[in-house]
Amino acid sequence: MKTKYSATSREECTRCPALCCKNLSMEIGKPVNRKEIEDLKWQLHFDTVKVYIRHRRWYQMVEGTCMYLSNDRCTIYEHRPKKCRAHNPPNCERFGEFFDVMLATPQELEDYYQNHMRRRRKGTKKKDPGRGKTERV
Ligand code: SF4
Ligand code: SF4
C-alpha cells in the first residue's frame, strides 16, 4: 500500500527521472472468461499497452509521458492530482518491481491463461472431479 508522502520520499523523487510520470497505470477488473481474455489480448496488440498483476489485482499500463512533465519535473507540482500525490516511494517504479506478472503481448496473456486453467483443472480434479466445467479465469 502507498506510504504517506514524507521529506525522505520527496528527496527520492528529486533524484528520480520521474518514472511514474512516463506511464499511466489503471486498475482493471480481472478477466473472468474467454471473451474478456480476448478483449484484453486485442488491447495488447498495441505496443504502448501492457497488463500487469500485482497482489492479485490486474492493471492496464499505457506507456506515454504526462503533458505536465518537463525536464523530468512536474510543472503543476503544487496542484498535481490526488493520484499523483498518493504515489510515493518506496512503493513505486524506482524501487524494485511494481508487478508480480507482466503481460506485454497477446501471446503472453494467452500462455498465462492456459497455465492458469491447467493449474485450476488440476486443483479442481483433486478436490471434486465433477466440478470446474465452466472456464473462468
Ligand atoms: S514516486 Fe517513485 S517513480 Fe515517481 S518520481 Fe518518486 S521516486 Fe520516481
Ligand atoms: S501531473 Fe505531475 S506528478 Fe502527475 S503524472 Fe503529471 S507530471 Fe507527474
How many structural domains are formed by the residues?
1
> Which regions contain 5 or more consecutive residues with pLDDT less than 50?
129-135
Rg, alpha carbons: 19 Å
Amount of helix: 25-40%
What does the main sheet amount to?
A: 4 strands, antiparallel
Between the first and last Cα atoms, what is the distance in angstroms?
25 Å
Please give the number of β-strands.
6
**Structure classification:** alpha+beta
Strand content: 15-25%
Side-by-side strand order of the widest sheet: 1-3-2-6
Give the overall pLDDT as a whole number. 87
> What bound compounds does this protein have?
iron/sulfur cluster
Number of helices: 4
Shape: elongated
The secondary-structure element order is HEHEEEEHEH
Explain what this protein looks like in three dimensions.
- This protein is an alpha+beta fold and 137 residues long.
- It has one domain.
- The protein is built from four helices and six strands, in the order αβαββββαβα.
- It has helices at residues 7-14, 34-43, 82-85, 106-127, and strands at residues 23-28, 49-54, 57-63, 69-70, 73-74, 101-103.
- The strands form two sheets. A four-stranded antiparallel sheet has the order 1-3-2-6. Strands 4-5 form a two-stranded antiparallel sheet.
- β2 and β3 (57-63) form a beta hairpin.
- α2 (34-43) runs antiparallel to α4.
- The protein is elongated.
- The site of one iron/sulfur cluster has 12 residues, from α1.
- The site of one iron/sulfur cluster has 9 residues, from loops.
